[in-house]
Design goal:
The protein has a single domain, classed as Orthogonal Bundle (Arp2/3 complex 21 kDa subunit ARPC3), CATH 1.10.1760. The protein is about 75% helix and about 5% strand. The chain has a two-stranded antiparallel ribbon.
Length: about 220
């Protein structure tokens, strides 16, 4: 895919940026809410239930990086962290507000939406480091001859690097002492490897849509 310069944020293309930002933020909030559940995988492996939604957020981040550049991608990462923190704050407020006598689901509500300090610390640390590392890796690969020519390579390669660090940090901080770390890290990373490969066409779809929707993007 031929390289094109990042598109500046002007009135004519802000809509595209806002759409991609909104989807990315929705995905990371969803991942944050469901991050404490582990799902069973073949061969006795395990992974977080958020693996698909979280990997989709990296697809959106790569698309934003390609369309709008490094600064916009970093802004999206930081706004995603702020959105996760706000959502947790409102979840905790909802949990601690007194339940009505006619509503018997307080315990289940708290168990699903409440997060332990370890889950929050692990998730937020992994998110911040992993997604910023993904942005760095994306633009480092873009400087190489092959990575500069192939969008799929810089997107796929940066996702795998960011997710290796992300997965290791999250599982270690959140589940050390409560789950087999190596097996869980391996299971989650293998799932992410498969998902990252399968989702590669979505990068082209998102970037193609963005460039078609912006006059500045038709290069």
């Amino acid at each position: 895919m031929k390289q094109a310069a990042p598109v500046p944020l002007t009135d004519s293309n802000t809509r595209v940026f806002v759409v991609l930002l909104t989807i990315h933020t929705s995905l990371v909030i969803s991942s944050n809410a469901a991050g404490s559940k582990l799902i069973a995988l073949p061969l006795g492996l395990a992974a977080s239930a958020t693996v698909i939604s979280y990997m989709l957020s990296f697809v959106l981040l790569g698309s934003i990086a390609e369309l709008f550049g490094r600064g916009a991608a970093r802004l999206v990462v930081n706004l995603g962290l702020a959105a996760m923190a706000l959502s947790v704050g409102f979840f905790e407020l909802a949990i601690h507000l007194p339940a009505a006598d006619i509503w018997p689901h307080q315990r289940a509500f708290a168990e699903v939406l409440g997060s332990s300090l370890r889950i929050l610390l692990g998730g937020w640390t992994a998110y911040l480091v992993g997604q910023h590392l993904d942005v760095v890796g994306f633009f480092l690969l873009k400087r190489t001859r092959l990575g500069g020519e192939q969008l799929w390579l810089r997107s796929w390669g940066s996702m795998l690097l960011g997710q290796l660090v992300d997965t290791t940090l999250f599982i270690t901080i959140a589940f050390a002492g409560t789950a087999p770390l190596l097996r869980t890290i391996l299971g989650q990373y293998l799932v992410k490897l498969v998902i990252a490969t399968a989702m590669t066409p979505l990068i082209y779809a998102a970037v193609g849509w963005g460039r078609a929707a912006m006059p500045e993007g038709r290069r």
